[in-house]
Amino acid sequence: MVLAPIFLCLTMGSTDCQYFSSTTVPPTDTSPPATWDGVWTAGDYAKLSTNPGSFTYHIALGAQVIAVSSGIDGGGVRKVTMATDESWTCCSGNICSGTESLSAPTIATQNGSIGATVSNGVWTGLSVQAHGPCNPGYTLSFYRFAWTTTAEDFHGNKATGSTQQIVYP
Q1: Digit-coded pLDDT (tens) for 134-159
Q2: Which of 125, 147, 161 has the alpha carbon at shortest distance from 17?
Q3: Are 91 and 135 contacting, i.e. CB atoms less than 8 angstroms apart?
Q4: pTM confidence score
Q5: Cα–Cα distance, 41 to 67 (Å, whole number)
Q6: Four-residue CA torsion sign, 43, 72, 128, 56
């Protein structure tokens, strides 16, 4: 399958990926990068989308996947930011308690300047597992991990993708 080699991206650095290539940072660039988001599980992408597309991936309780954010630009990507939030609801009978958690963004960068040879892409990712620190006697009834990717090139052009989400049930 064509997407299977992307696994190499997950095992190497943020600019090393079979789908990325070397490029030279141009003197001018007015186009923003493209953002790509995906859910990696069992050695392949279960979901993959570029801006402005969005998706919802349904995860089984206890399953683990990787949420991936990336940016690609012909003149190189300087930074990718993955902004996330997580929420869950735990219930005991008809009594439920909800929690929402915001996290510091996950950022991947590469150095470079006009005329430098850089990668045309940068990626980052986070492991996601449907869970909730539920109190004794409560069980997880809902879980949501959502993220938005922002990619920036070496000339300050930015693109922000749509919000993606992983949910249980």
Answers
A1: 999 999 999 999 999 999 999 999 99
A2: 125
A3: no
A4: 0.88
A5: 9
A6: negative
